[in-house]
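sry for the spam today, last one i promise. struct tokens for design, 347 residues
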């Protein structure tokens, strides 16, 4: 099982910021890139899955621990809140704790899954990582959140879908284990966006039509011309800012970006499967986690994917999963139509 270093903010965006004429923005972006490079090469061994209990099953409950890095980079840092403990005076700690809980709740209540590995994996998060750190990441064992630079990025615990996105990389690690490169890497990123969006919608009680389908809404400083890091509803429209640049995500295979950067464009081309999920979920209506989300979950846990799975193979798997669970009904039609709309074949 590989343990990829997965960030919410792609390196190409940070590289763009590092060239900014604003010294504060450039310095923070360069510092973040250096911290990411160091964390990426750190050796992390995945925590083994908890052994299933032989006792009568009780409702699954999270096992959360939040640490404070105190603006240093040593992990995990100082423990500041454990499972069941009272809220602290630090809003960032409390948001991280709540976000871990919201993610656990979605996977348990919607899919019957006990944590990211299905066997009660403890949920660990470190906040206040480094100084002016403009990212959040999953390192194969835990989540880490920066405070942002207060120029481009605010606190990375502010959007619950950012917390859920990073934790969902753990779900992928323990299921399909999609290789973090090219199309399989873009699928890895997309799955995190999908379940990040579902956690946000579940927490808010929103239907597919009511949801904004934005990833990282509220993360940007008010001065930034942008609404979020990504839009599943309209990839390529999340931001267009003089300093930040323009959202490069495509929504269709005709615009697929071939690049050697960003592990083959994993944060860029994820817009294509993201949009397919949005289309399927809104076509079906209601709560997105109930049918579209169930199909995606079935694919990830069904054992048919390989680490090198490509878009077309994933699309075929969603059609098969829809048929297996729902038969020749609206679900299979919605999924087939969604992939066709983004130019990915399902036959």
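last one done:
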């Amino acid at each position: 099982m590989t343990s990829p270093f997965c960030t919410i903010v792609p390196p190409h965006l940070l590289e763009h910021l590092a060239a900014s004429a604003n010294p504060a923005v450039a310095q923070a972006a360069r510092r973040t890139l250096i911290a990411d490079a160091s964390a990426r090469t750190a050796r992390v061994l995945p925590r083994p899955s908890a052994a299933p209990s032989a006792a009568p099953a009780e409702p699954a409950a999270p096992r959360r621990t939040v640490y404070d890095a105190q603006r240093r980079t040593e992990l995990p840092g100082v423990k500041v809140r454990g499972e069941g403990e009272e809220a602290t005076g630090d809003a960032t700690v409390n948001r991280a704790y709540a976000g871990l809980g919201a993610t656990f709740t979605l996977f348990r209540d919607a899919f019957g899954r006990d944590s990211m590995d299905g066997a009660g994996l403890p949920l660990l998060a470190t906040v206040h990582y480094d100084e002016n750190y403009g990212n959040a990441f999953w390192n194969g064992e835990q989540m880490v959140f920066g405070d942002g630079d207060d120029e481009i990025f605010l606190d990375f615990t502010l959007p619950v879908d950012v917390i859920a996105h990073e934790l969902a990389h753990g779900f992928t690690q323990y299921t399909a284990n999609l290789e973090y490169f090219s199309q399989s890497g873009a699928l890895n990123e997309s799955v995190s966006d999908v379940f990040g969006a579902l956690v946000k919608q579940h927490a808010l009680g929103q239907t597919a039509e009511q949801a904004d389908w934005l990833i990282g809404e509220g993360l940007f400083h008010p001065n930034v011309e942008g609404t979020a890091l990504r839009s599943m509803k309209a990839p390529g429209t999340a931001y267009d800012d003089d300093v930040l640049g323009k959202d490069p995500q495509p929504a269709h295979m005709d615009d697929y970006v071939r690049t050697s950067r960003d592990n083959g464009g994993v944060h860029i081309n994820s817009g294509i499967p993201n949009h397919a999920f949005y289309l399927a979920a809104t076509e079906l209506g209601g709560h997105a986690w109930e049918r579209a989300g169930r199909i995606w979950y079935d694919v990830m846990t069904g054992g048919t994917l390989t680490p090198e799975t490509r878009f077309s193979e994933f699309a075929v798997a969603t059609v098969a999963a829809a048929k297996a669970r729902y038969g020749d009904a609206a679900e299979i039609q919605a999924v087939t139509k969604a992939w066709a709309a983004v130019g990915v074949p399902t036959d």
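Residues 43-56 have pLDDT under 50 and may be disordered. ok im logging off now
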